[in-house]
What we know:
By secondary structure, this protein is an alpha+beta fold. It is built from 2 helices and 5 strands, in the order αββαβββ.
Amino acid sequence: MKECTHRDQIRDVKPRSHACGECLKMGDTWVHLRLCMTCGHVGCCDSSKNKHATKHFHSSQHPIMRSIEPGESWGWCYIDEVELDFA
Ligand SMILES: [Zn+2]
Ligand SMILES: [Zn+2]
Ligand SMILES: [Zn+2]
């Protein structure tokens, strides 16, 4: 199994909001929220129309996000494409 080699980029971040700021600006809606573990950016998931979490990875190169949906503690490394556990 592949291992994530980017855990050193995980910071003690808190979500700035429980909303996708970029979708709010556009007047759009989202499905689920993802938190960037490097800078605290909150973006919407790939099931959402605008995929702002993935766009944030491409623009910032911050590799690791986690779900901030209630009861969910999984994360994802975009570079290694492995699931992480933040429980
Ligand atoms: Zn990784
Ligand atoms: Zn969004
Ligand atoms: Zn980030």
